[in-house]
């Protein structure tokens, strides 16, 4: 069972918020003594998801949680937006798929960088991506 | 405002201004270093003129209505200027608060019927409170503009191109490499390559906290542009944790020359340019 130990929501509406969010995520990761490699993976994953949110959905918000499962602590990030949604998630999860002329590695790459990855999207309603990175995972 | 009060305040414009000026000048927090008394007086006069002229308005609650726009414009202008000049929120707020006191003072002097006085005080308070909110909103907007301008300046100054050797340029990048920043970096770098006729550029990313796919794409773009200019571009300062993350993301940097430190990038550049760095032979007249 995964318990949530702390919650914090960051609204992302403009470029400056991206750096702010990444700093908050880093703070939380440092607080639970996550190692440098995992920290970097988590922050990079967060960076990918927040950029998608800015670029494709005009912003949104991110819930930052410290979670615990048994003896392991971790950081759970929930990115939610009310953008256009993703019509074909399978395609979006493929390496190199991009509707924005970029590398198309954000979603599949993020999945490889974290321990748990979940994406839900409804066309016309928005997208929710949830990831967990364990401190020793 | 009742017609009477309205006319009363119009007639007492001068008194209001004097009272208000007295309040402002008596305030210990008055920033004589930032604003001259003359300027303060003319700002105050302009605002009273607009405000008193507007009190006949029925729209006491709705400051969004067109009738209020002259007042809001003047007040907004003052708030923005103050934000830029470095006034604190409290100092800016006191400008409006002290006007409220002056207005209330005049009402107290002139209206004898307590019930009437209360009614009018309530209205004046409501208007002035709304104006205070407007002042703060505009003040904050002003501060945000200052911050945005500084952000641009920082982006500009934090991307220096350094000539480390004849024909070798180095560009330390510190902080996040977003699209706007990449544009500046690329322009500076390409220009400097042309100006100096350099054949090697080293992009050092030791100061970049994370390399996501967007940053990677920007790096790849910069390297390609450099090559189009006939120069080679080396990326240095890739820390082990960054290297691992980049691999996991699935980014292919195999076409790019990467080095872990600026020093090893420089050594590589020397080799390419057939330069040798040697320890000088010990000479007899060395000072010990
Ligand atoms: N929050 C989102 N809202 C709508 N569409 C999205 C969102 N995130 C990703 N997408 C879609 O999924 C595609 C793949 O995303 P990603 O893997 O990050 O690659 P890239 O951002 O380089 O295109 C995007 O091109 C876009 O079409
Ligand atoms: Mg992306």
TrEMBL record, chain A:
Q: Which residues form the Histidine kinase/HSP90-like ATPase domain?
A: 37-137
Protein name in UniProt: Anti-sigma regulatory factor
Organism per entry: Mucilaginibacter hurinus
Q: Cross-referenced InterPro entries, in alphabetical order?
A: HATPase_C_sf, HATPase_dom
Q: Pfam families under this entry?
A: HATPase_c (PF02518)
SMART domains tied to this protein: HATPase_c
UniProtKB/TrEMBL annotation, chain B:
Q: Does the keyword Signal apply?
A: no
Q: What InterPro entries does the record tag this protein with?
A: Bact_StressResp_Reg, RsbRD_N_dom, STAS_dom, STAS_dom_sf
Q: Where is the signal peptide?
A: none
Q: Which residues form the STAS domain?
A: 158-269
Report if keyword Ribosomal protein is assigned: no
Q: Mind listing the UniProt keywords for this protein, alphabetically?
A: Phosphoprotein
Show the PANTHER family listed in the entry: RSBT ANTAGONIST PROTEIN RSBS-RELATED, RSBT CO-ANTAGONIST PROTEIN RSBRC
* Name this polypeptide is given: Anti-anti-sigma factor
